[in-house]
Specification:
Elements (H helix, E strand, L loop, with lengths): L1 H28 L2 E7 L5 H14 L3 E7 L5 H10 L6 E3 L7 H7 L24 E2 L2 E2 L2 E14 H7 L7 H13 L3 E4 L5 H15 L1 H6 L10 H15 L13 H9 L3 E7 L3 H7 L5 E4 L9 E12 L6 H11 L2 H11 L2 E2 L9 H7 L3 E3 L2 H7 L7 H13 L5 H9 L4
Parallel strand pairs: 1-2, 1-3, 7-8, 10-12
Antiparallel strand pairs: 3-10, 4-5, 6-8, 6-9, 6-10, 6-11
Helix pairs in contact: 2-13, 7-9, 7-16, 10-11, 16-17
C-alpha cells in the first residue's frame, strides 16, 4: 500500500510539473509587441511594476507604453481608433463616465467576458468595467478616492491642528491666510482638479445630501450641490486658493505650489500621494478627510478602472495575455504598491502609510460625478457638460445656477 501511495504521489507531482512546463512553454510561445496608452504620468510607477511582472512571465512580448495628455486623452484615442492605428491596450474611466460606453457602441473595444478569468478579483469591483453583464475592462483593486493633503511640518510650525468639524476647517483656512500662506492649492483650469476638491468639500458641507447620491434620492443638481459650489467661490474671493488663483496654469503648477511650501494643503486624488513625494522627497505629507458639522468624516470613492483591449488589435494573443495578467493578484498588488493606493480588496495590501490616513473615515460616499454618468437621460451626456463647464464657473464665465441648470436638463 505504501508503495502504491508513493507511486500515486510521484505521478501527481509529475503531472503538476508537466502542467507547469506546458504553461511556461505556452507563455514563451506568446510573442509580439503591444502598445499601451495611459492618461497620466502619475501612474508610471504602477505601470512599470505591472509591465515588469508581465514580461517575467512573457519574455518574448515587448511592451511599449505612452502617456497622453489628460485633457486631450479621449480626443487622441478616438482619432487613433478612427484611423485604425489605436493602441492594443488603453485606459478608460470605465462606467464612471460615458467614454467607455461610447467606445462599446462604436465596436472599438473587445468583449472580455469570455477572455479574462476574473476569479482572483473582487466580483463587486467589476461593475466599473461592465455593461449589461459583459466585461469590457479590467479594474484595479484600489479605491480612487480624494483627500485633503497637508504639510505636516508647516502645521507643526504654526500650531495648526487637524479640524474636527467643518466650521473648524473653515476657521483653519482663515488662520492660514492670515499667516501669509495659501490655504489650498487648486487649479481652476481643469474640471478634474476642481472635482477632486469639490467632492470632499461637498461631503463635509452637507453629508446628508451626499449620502443620498448613492440611491439617487438626492439629485446631482439639488440645492446643496449648488450651495457648496458657491461656498468654494466665496473661498476663492477670500483668497483661500491664493491671490493669483486664476493664474494657476495646470495641475503640475497646483502640485508645485503645494510641494514647494507655498500652500498648506491640497485637495487631490489618492493617486497623487506619490506625485507629491516625487516632487519633494523631503516634504512630510499627511492626509485627512474633511469632517462635517458633527465631526463625521467620509471618503468619496470609486473603484479604479484599468485597461481595455482594442477590438482590432493586430497583436491579439499578446494583448489577451497582458489583460489576463492584469486580472491576477500579483499584478493588482503591483499597481496598488506603485500608487501607494487605498486597497479595495482584502487580498491586496494598501500601498503606503498615507493610504491608511486617507482611508481613515467613518463613511464612504458615492462620487457626485458618477451620478452624472449613471443617471443621465438616454442619449444625453451630463459628464461632458461638467467637463466643459465647471472651470467656466470658477473663471467667472458662467454662473453656478446656469451650470447646474444645464446639467439638470439632461438628467433623469
Amino acid at each position: 500500500m505504501k508503495k502504491l501511495l508513493s507511486l500515486l504521489t510521484a505521478l501527481a507531482a509529475a503531472a503538476v510539473l508537466s502542467a507547469g512546463a506546458v504553461q511556461a512553454r505556452a507563455e514563451e510561445e506568446v510573442t509580439g509587441t503591444i502598445t499601451i496608452w495611459e492618461h497620466n504620468t502619475s501612474f508610471e510607477t504602477s505601470l512599470d511594476g505591472v509591465v515588469k511582472g508581465f514580461r517575467e512571465k512573457y519574455p518574448n512580448v515587448e511592451v511599449e507604453y505612452e502617456f497622453k495628455d489628460g485633457g486631450q486623452y479621449y480626443n487622441l484615442l478616438n482619432i487613433a481608433i478612427q484611423s485604425g492605428d489605436a493602441p492594443d491596450i488603453f485606459w478608460t474611466n470605465g462606467m464612471a463616465t460615458n467614454n467607455l460606453n461610447e467606445l462599446i457602441k462604436a465596436d472599438a473595444v473587445m468583449d472580455l467576458t469570455d477572455v479574462v478569468n476574473t476569479s482572483e478579483l473582487q466580483q463587486q469591483n467589476l461593475g466599473i468595467g461592465t455593461k449589461e453583464g459583459r466585461l469590457y475592462s479590467v479594474p484595479w483593486s484600489c479605491i480612487d478616492t480624494r483627500a485633503c493633503y497637508y504639510n505636516k511640518e508647516m502645521f507643526e510650525q504654526h500650531g495648526w491642528e487637524l479640524p474636527k468639524t467643518f466650521d473648524e476647517f473653515e476657521a483653519l483656512l482663515q488662520k492660514q491666510k492670515d499667516a501669509g500662506v495659501i490655504p489650498i492649492s487648486l487649479n481652476p483650469n481643469s474640471c478634474w482638479d476642481l472635482l477632486f476638491a469639490y467632492e470632499p468639500i461637498l461631503s463635509a458641507f452637507d453629508s446628508a445630501y451626499t449620502m443620498g447620491l448613492a440611491d439617487y434620492s438626492a439629485k446631482a443638481t439639488d440645492q446643496p450641490a449648488r450651495d457648496c459650489l458657491n461656498r468654494m467661490l466665496a473661498w476663492a474671493d477670500k483668497g483661500y486658493f491664493g491671490d493669483n488663483f486664476l493664474g494657476v496654469a495646470n495641475g503640475d503648477a497646483m502640485v508645485l505650489t503645494f510641494t514647494n511650501g507655498e500652500a498648506a494643503m491640497c485637495l487631490a486624488g489618492s493617486w497623487d500621494a506619490n506625485t507629491f513625494t516625487d516632487n519633494n522627497p523631503n516634504m512630510k505629507v499627511g492626509a485627512f478627510q474633511i469632517p462635517d458639522k458633527d465631526g463625521v468624516t467620509g471618503m468619496v470613492g470609486t473603484n479604479a478602472n484599468g485597461f481595455s483591449v482594442y477590438k482590432k488589435t493586430k497583436n491579439e494573443l499578446a494583448a489577451k495575455a497582458f489583460i489576463q495578467y492584469c486580472a491576477t493578484t500579483e499584478a493588482q498588488q503591483a499597481w496598488v504598491d506603485g500608487q501607494g493606493a487605498v486597497s479595495g480588496d482584502p487580498k491586496v495590501k494598501s500601498g503606503s502609510e498615507i493610504a491608511g490616513e486617507i482611508a481613515h473615515a467613518d463613511r464612504v460616499y458615492t462620487s457626485w460625478q458618477s451620478v452624472l454618468a449613471n443617471h443621465a437621460k438616454e442619449g444625453e451626456n451630463a459628464s461632458t457638460l461638467f467637463e466643459n463647464d465647471m472651470p467656466k464657473v470658477f473663471q467667472g464665465e458662467m454662473t453656478t445656477d446656469a451650470f447646474f441648470d444645464e446639467i439638470a436638463a439632461v438628467m433623469e
